Amino acid sequence: MSTLRPFTCDDLFRYNNVNLDPLTETYGLSFYMQYLAHWPEYFQLAESPSGEIMGYIMGKAEGVGDNWHGHVTALTISPDYRRLGLAATLMKYLEDVSEKKQAYFVDLFVRVSNQVAISMYKRLGYIVYRTVLEYYSGDPDEDAYDMRKALSKDVKKKSVIALDHPVRSEEVD
After folding, report:
1. Running DSSP on this structure, what letter comes out for residue 126?
2. Which class for 37: exposed (0-12), middle (13-18), buried (19 or more C-beta within 10 A)?
């Protein structure tokens, strides 16, 4: 059994067991603090009964007009707690927050090589909206998929009409 709760500043001193995974994008402390200050409702943590951090999700709301959306900045689960449905639970939480904010869709970026995550996102209803060439600065040979899921505000599902050509990272809005 796990508990979902808001991520706090103190958690920044306890999350190494999750963040040291090679598939997890790790940011500087100021980046995490910015998210906590601006979008605290989008920053949730899964905690074990013993108090160990099992995983977390961090996101934000951005865009204007029919591009207003929830964005998943990071979702990571400790290797010890994978395949338990925690990632899907955290994604559902972020989608619910985005619904309350009247967002049209939720999007995220994932490495094209991360087939496990891509499969999970597809099971959750996400589509590959576009390929972003050379997205990852630490690995310029790795592209990303921009995956999206339409929310109820996007009645005509315009946000999930996939592009038929790749884009460069500087073209991503």
Report:
1. -
2. exposed
How distant, in Å, are the alpha carbons of 14, 62, 127, 148, 151 from that of 166? Answer: 38, 22, 15, 15, 24
Phi, psi torsion values for 156, nearest 5 degrees: -90, 0
Helix (H, G, I), strand (E, B) or coil at 85: coil
pTM: 0.92
Any idea what DSSP says for residue 79? G
Cα separation, 171 vs 173, in Å, equals 6
Mean pLDDT of 120-133: 97
Cα end-to-end distance, the chain, whole Å: 39
Residue 95 has pLDDT above 90, yes or no: yes
Length of the chain: 173
Paired tokens of 117: 């995550």
Name 163's Cβ contacts closer than 8 Å, sequence gap at least 6. Answer: 129, 130
- Residue 142: what pLDDT? 87
